[in-house]
Design goal:
3-stranded parallel β-sheet; 14 helices; Tyrosyl-Transfer RNA Synthetase; 2 domains; mainly alpha; about 55% helix; Rossmann fold
Length: about 350
């Protein structure tokens, strides 16, 4: 807790292009949390290199993601928005936490199994210990809550286990984080396979709407979205494609699923998809306009990067120094002289 506010931490990887699912399921919700929580939002570029990246492209995507955070409405004066790699405490705490995490725990992580299957030629140690770095991300800032989707819940549970294990040995060092799960739009599914989540890495270009897709591309992708042969706009599990489109339309318009059902009673899928497309375009257009404006404000973005890294570093160092002292690392002479 910082002041009267609980602390919230979250972040996104600087790989691929953000999708509508990333925006509706996470980024859009983050903005509404800024008043209630002391928020730390990281561009998690250190996590990104578990898979080989083109260096120039990674730098470009990291900056683009940070700009998207701001364009979406995150005020860098109210929120700490920073690059993970600019705060070395993430790596330093991750090493210490590695020594309090068991091989069996990491080998059970579903994401490790999935990524190992996809990248069989590069099953590196970073991929295996990825959840420990995630734990360090969260615990460094003494986060009370972490917005997570269902697919990240396993990692948060491991974070809690590591924190409780450390606290049991050394006392009350870490805050035990709780999950914050949004009620609506928490999981937007693929437009072509509604049994799986919309993904930045989907090989089918029609499966995902990307935040910087132009309006015609958005409309075309929504028109091609998988539905079914029932022909009725109903919010039920037996119609996963239609249910997904209702979720998208609901979040974009603020209407409840039952209101959407009533609105499109007796109307066909073609008309419904067209309406969904227009709703998405109306949400993305102002976001895209703001991104283009911020891309031109190089000095402002550079100032945000510098100032927010310093803010994050200050908070992270407090936790790291406490942990280093608990495990027995020698005090730094410079810090002793400053007392």
């Amino acid at each position: 807790m910082i002041g009267d506010k609980k602390v919230l931490f979250s972040g996104m990887q600087a790989t691929g292009s953000l999708t509508l699912g990333n925006y509706l399921g996470a980024l859009k919700n983050w903005v509404s949390l800024s008043d209630e929580y002391e928020c730390f939002y990281s561009v998690v570029d250190m996590h990104s290199i578990t898979v080989r990246q083109d260096p120039a492209e990674l730098r470009k995507r990291a900056r683009a993601l940070l700009i998207l955070y701001i364009a979406a409405g995150l005020d860098p004066e109210k929120n700490t928005i920073y690059y993970q790699s600019h705060v070395s405490a993430h790596a330093e705490l991750a090493w210490i936490l590695n020594c309090f995490t068991y091989m069996g725990e990491l080998s059970r992580m579903t994401q490790f199994k999935d990524k190992s299957a996809k990248h069989g030629d590069n099953i590196n140690a970073g991929l295996f210990t990825y959840p420990v770095l995630m734990a360090a991300d969260i615990l460094l800032y003494q986060a009370d809550v972490v917005p997570v989707g269902i697919d990240q819940m396993q990692h948060l549970e491991l974070t809690r286990d590591i924190a409780m294990r450390f606290n049991a040995i050394y006392g009350d060092v870490f805050t035990i984080p709780e999950a914050y799960v949004g009620k609506q739009g928490a999981k937007i599914m693929s437009l072509q396979d509604p049994s799986k989540k919309m993904s930045k890495s989907d090989e089918n270009p029609n499966a995902s709407v990307y935040l910087m897709d132009d309006p015609d591309t958005v409309r075309r992708k929504l028109k091609r979205a998988v539905t079914d042969s029932e022909g009725a706009v109903r919010y039920r599990d037996e119609q996963p494609g239609v249910k997904n489109l209702i979720d998208i339309y609901s979040v974009c318009t603020g209407k409840l699923p039952e209101e959407v059902e009533r609105e499109f009673e007796g109307r066909g899928y073609g008309e419904f998809k067209e309406a969904v497309g227009e709703a998405v375009v109306s949400v993305l257009s102002p976001l895209q306009k703001r991104v283009k404006e911020l891309e031109k404000e190089k000095e402002y973005i550079d100032t945000v990067i510098r100032n927010n890294a310093e803010k994050a570093e200050m908070t992270a160092r407090r936790t790291l120094r406490k942990v280093q002292k608990k495990v027995g690392f020698p005090e730094r002479v410079r810090e002793r002289e400053q007392k």
